[in-house]
Amino acid sequence: MNRALGLTGLIIGFGGSIVAIFMLIGALRTRRADLAKMGRAYSLVVLAGAVLAVVAMQLALAQRDYTILYVAQNGSSTTPFLFNVAAMWSALEGSILLWGIILAGYITVVAHKVRKRMDDPLVIWALIVMFAVSIFFFGLMLTAANPFVANSPAPGFDGPGPNPLLQNHVLMAFHPPMLYLGYVGFTVPFAFAIAALITGRVGEGWLIETRRWTLFAWGFLTAGIILGAWWSYEVLGWGGYWGWDPVENASLLPWLTGTAYIHSVMVQERRGMLRVWNLSLLCATFSLTILGTFLTRSGVVQSVHAFTAGSVGPLLLGFFALIVAVSVGLIGWRGDQLRSVGRIDSAVSREGAFLANNLVFAALAFVVMLGTVFPLIVEAVAGDALSVGPPYFNRMTMPLGLTLLFLMAIAPVLPWRKASGELLRERLWWPAWFGIGSLALSVVLGARGIAALLAFTIGGFAAGSAFRQIALATRRQGWRGLVGRANGGMVVHLGTIMIGVALAASMSFMSQGEFTLARGETAHIGGHTVRYVDSHTVEYNNRISLIARIKVDDKVVYEPRLNRFRASGQTVPTPSVKAGPRSDIMLSITSAPSEDDPSLGLRVIVWPMVTWIWVGGLVMLFGTVLAIFPGKRRNPLQAVSEPTPMELEHSR
Description:
Helix content is about 60%, strand content about 10%. Among the domains are: about 1-155, Four Helix Bundle (Hemerythrin (Met), subunit A); about 510-610, no CATH class. By secondary structure, the protein is an alpha+beta fold.
């Protein structure tokens, strides 16, 4: 029954997308608004199909319906409820199903928002592009990634449950959906960009349609990346939050190009410049979400985040190549119309700073992509296994990251077109002193090393610049002045600065050690004392946990765990973290006591300022929410009717 319902939902979603495209194309050919409205209404059909498929999968997981192969491979009667729900996106086919329902949701919301504009070819083409993407993913689920393949279980069969790493922390229930809301959300601005290229309306009007959608997608992707880093920190036991894993990099790449677009689009709106660049960034961002999906789900990389090899790899790679080819072809076709009507008058201007910012983001994306994809190319061509590890990424990205912090300090104070030396001295006076104060404070607190001191100094400089802008906005309009893209962006900058400085501090001053402790024995590391008190075993339905009691600095007792999952026999540590504003102390069990050796193996890591990574992430999300809403002086309805810079140029 569940299998039949699920397959029916997939067929409805696939068929509804096809019918919608035929109706929308018919509306373009015949200029019939009623056909366009009917095509738009099929978004509800696609959503209904996706919901039916997801409900069928969740029922199958809840009922342990092992007649479905996916449930037999990923479900278990011993899996706790929350992780049983999350099992839907813990493996390949279910993760594509999650992608499908989120995509159907985005299409439905967009179709509702544009319901009064179904006579506009730009809107119709955007919907066609989104339905075309929907056809690919529903088609994928009906063929190579079918989550409802039949199975014949033996009597008394019980599944292994999700990967133990994916049922060891509550973040597993939230990290993948957040990441997918970001990944899939970039379909909307991509669709409007392709629609603008097809219709030839490549001025600034289409930007109004995509502004908030881009911020929504970017905000969710940011949340997904931060939650993923937190999951690694809390679950994997190796003590890190970012290991430059290929799958981690796959989520970072579209974030980098999406961030570059969010900045450079302001130049196009204000000066009519960077049109080719902005369209290329949007197309690249969506393309990179598909590439990231390929890396995660094709089995070409070995990672704790990656899924097993399957037949979806060539299909995803082909879809990625198709998107790139279509995007490049359309941009080349509209080349003459994409010429900018403005130009950069001075490098010392806001548009000059945004251009430099974009170049740095592009360089970062290139460095990350080179380190991620190059080993795969070498292995595919020459058959040699090549590994690119954290030293490469840290060495290449650190100077670029510091450059971005510097640009974050300079860009907000620069005027458009040109800045005088006197104006710069006036506006950078307090931010500069803020940076000097940060340097002095970091030295007093014991910071050493050129990279760390530069990060503290430039971070303080950038924070002073952001605080200056926020202070000016609130002085003029009160706290309502924080609402809007410009000032919400300053709040995002503050969060980014927190993360950047925390990354530099944690990587520069981290200390760690591994100890073998008998009961009551003490170890010292990084100015802290840890004492092994005792340990005991607790049995759960799905695992057996060894819980050690460790007293830190003779104050609070923390309890790291070593979990052995019954179904797989896999042992997974769960670290315990003593978090604080200055540093974290992470405790992770490396070996359990036994009858022959009653001592405990313990890894202790002291991470300076790690807490500020999570605080910075929250500040970034808060700033994104502020930026999504229009500021007091912005009226989107007026903006739509205003002539674009190109239209003004033609009217002269």
